[in-house]
Amino acid sequence: MKENKITAEGIIGQAMGLEMSFSGAEFPVEIFPSKIQRIIHEVHECQSYPIDYTAASIFTAIAVGIGNTHHIQMKQGWVESAILFVALVGRPGANKSHPLSFAMKPFVDFDHRQNQEFGKLYAKYEQDVSLTKKERTSEGLEEFPQEPIRKRFLVSDITPEGLSYIHAQNWRGLCLCSDELSVWFKNFNRYNNGSEEQFWLSVFSAKAVISDRKNAKSSVFITRPFITVIGTIQRKILSDLAHGDRSNNGFIDRILFVMPTIEHKTRWNEKDASPDLESQWNELMNQLINLECSFDENNEVQPSIVTFSEEARRLLYKWQHQHAELCDSLGNETLLGIYCKLEIYIIRFCLVIQITRWLCGECSKEQVDTETVRRAILLTEYFKQTATRVQNLMNETALTTQQQSILSQLPELFTTAQGVEVATNQGMKERAFKEFLSKQIGTLFLKDRHGEYRKA
């Protein structure tokens, strides 16, 4: 498929994307092929699933399906995988869980079938082990029966040790999927102070995982882990994410936040989804689940390497140079940390988008083209905006009552003198207000020019 070629599918996709944007959705659904856009549109129309949550859940599910089967090479020695940490943020009743369940159902079905198969194999294994060596030989069985392995994609609340053990049996990769993401990070360091948080920081970068388990003959060693995380979280407990060192060690910077600006309580309607809607999604995901993987002599996955075309690389470099200039001008270190991580994420987005387009018959999967980079840029800009909004929300939650009052009283555009006047009326001294203003530039406030500001 030639790049930048106008097709009927492309026109239909853009039209659906425009229609969904009118519904208040901000997620750039045009990054998906029209086949997936139709699925997102139909579950929104018939099930009232918010588009942002559905689109982000589907994107994450595709990343999970890719796992360690494909990596993307930015340049020699720089390889990324499709690892994502995603948080669906919203108030109670915002309908966050159902879109996530819809997207992950193909993995739930796969894991269920595998669990049933594992139960049968394990019963047979126990039966064989109970026999004497002589009995096994006479019945033509293996002299030393091998304990069966349960294949799976999904895990929930689990310790790093347990997760490492399961991952060692499932080299392709895993997804920690939680309906309440707060359970994930609130349990950090419940057993070993500091170790669990460091575990997840390492997992994000796909660094080798070594776990020495009690009563085990050998330690678990995973050369390149793949564990994606997705879950829901309520707005009111977002500030819990900043507890401990998580606001300083870059942990929060690694999370992609999906937080629609417009939230409505779901309205029931009489529209029914087409009977084959779920089967269409299952068919796409089963293509990923059934992808053939090559293994080395140690039974470790040998991923296929996706590269960039020269044009695609130039476009990505152009974006990065502009993004670096923005980072250089930022006065807010919190946002700087987030923006820096997005430079890693955009490469991973390229991998997921290219595979998604291949899945729907739009292109090959061997090389990223300029259309994929263009779509990845759109997605990166979206997550840049949501990260800023989340930081603003967390900062507002952490403000004192006096600071919150000043923030509410300030006009959208104000000068330093006007701000000082508002602060004085609220009982805050001039020096304290200027320190407050300076610390919140880039989050709560934006500086237009010397002495002139606006609310972010």
Give an account of the 3D structure:
The protein is of the alpha/beta class. Helices cover 50% and strands 14% of the residues. The protein folds into 2 domains: 372 residues, Rossmann fold (3-Layer(aba) Sandwich); 57 residues. Helix 3 crosses helix 11 and helix 11 runs antiparallel to helix 12. The longest helix has 34 residues. The model has no long low-confidence stretch (mean pLDDT 86).
Key features?
456 residues, alpha/beta, Rossmann fold, four-stranded mixed beta sheet
What's the end-to-end separation, in Å? 42 Å
CATH architecture of the largest domain: 3-Layer(aba) Sandwich
* Helix share bin: 40-55%
What class would the helix/strand composition place it in? Answer: alpha/beta
**DSSP, total strands:** 16
General form: elongated
How many structural domains in the coordinates? 2
Tally the helices: what do you get?
Answer: 15
Strand order of the largest sheet: 4-5-8-3-9
Oligomeric grouping of the chains: single chain
Any idea what the radius of gyration is? 25 Å
Largest sheet: 5 strands, parallel
Enter the CATH topology name of the largest domain.
Rossmann fold
Strand content: 5-15%
CATH C-level category of the largest domain: Alpha Beta
Could you list the spans in which at least 5 consecutive residues all have pLDDT below 50? none
What's the overall average pLDDT, rounded?
Answer: 86
